[in-house]
Amino acid sequence: MPRSVFFGTSEFSVPSLRALAAATDLRLVVTRPHRPAGRGRRPSPPAVFRVATELGIDVIQPERARGAAFTAVICELEPDLLVTAAFGGLLSPGLLETARLECLNVHASLLPAYRGAAPVARAILDGASRTGVSIIRMVRELDAGPVFLSEAVPVDPDETAGGLTARLAEVGARALVRVIEGLPGLQPAEQDHSLATWAPPLGKEEGFVDWSRDETALHAHVRGMHPWPCAFTVLHGESLRIHGAKVVEERGALGVPGTVLAHSPAGLDVACGRGALRLLELQLPGKRRLGPAEFFAGRRIEAGTLLTRGCP
Prior knowledge:
Layout (H helix, E strand, L loop, with lengths): L2 E6 L4 H11 L1 E6 L4 E3 L4 E3 L2 H9 L3 E2 L7 H9 L4 E5 L7 H4 L5 E6 L11 H7 L4 E8 L9 E8 L6 H22 L32 H10 L6 E5 L2 E10 L12 E5 L2 E5 L4 E8 L8 H5 L16
Parallel strand pairs: 1-2, 1-6, 2-5, 6-7
Antiparallel strand pairs: 3-4, 7-8, 8-9, 10-11, 11-14, 12-13, 13-14
Helix pairs in contact: 1-2, 1-6, 5-7
């Protein structure tokens, strides 16, 4: 059974961590330090830390997973495999040389499309009808290594980035095991670097809703921004998070973009640059997420009310 070291941080990493623990002699898990989270800003462990602890696997949380001292720690474990999945940083060339067999990365796109930190959200924002997972050999350049295995996945028309990420995480874990089982004989194929596209990290300001866009683009925007940073608009001077939406069947120009057309237990219909969007789940600052029936209980929103762009 090959010896391995795993690098990961987020919920996307967890299925690959579990699969690696079952398929190899997992010697160590490397993840990010605890970070402040929630309204109280208390230090919170990464998802990978929680699961590694649950599995009884040694875990370390360096501020910087690089340098001679860190590389020496990994080298002493004599790993056959280094595996990363949503770790949040590149491994140094010296660190990559510590693996006897391979250095593998589980990436949530069909490379060379969507290299970078936010491939799932960017695919949804672009209106992609399919994406997938690639298992690649790690190299010095970000997500540029040759591909051992790619598996395509259709994107559901109403799927959020969070939901699709969870689904791809399971696909990636299974693909990772298939690649490990094929080593050392399995040979990867070089990417066509001329076709590379990029998926930079999301910024909080990208959640702001531009109502001048058409209904299809805004539906993708709400989906792609969920669960973070979430789509935002402003209602009566208060920031309003949009957790769910659907396209309304009407077409054409229905009024000034951002104008409330109607509200009912079915949702809040808002004019876009073309067509309309129905807001299905909403949240005001300091409040819980509410469906339309609960949100509008005791709250009057007249047709003609204008939703605007503003700070979250």
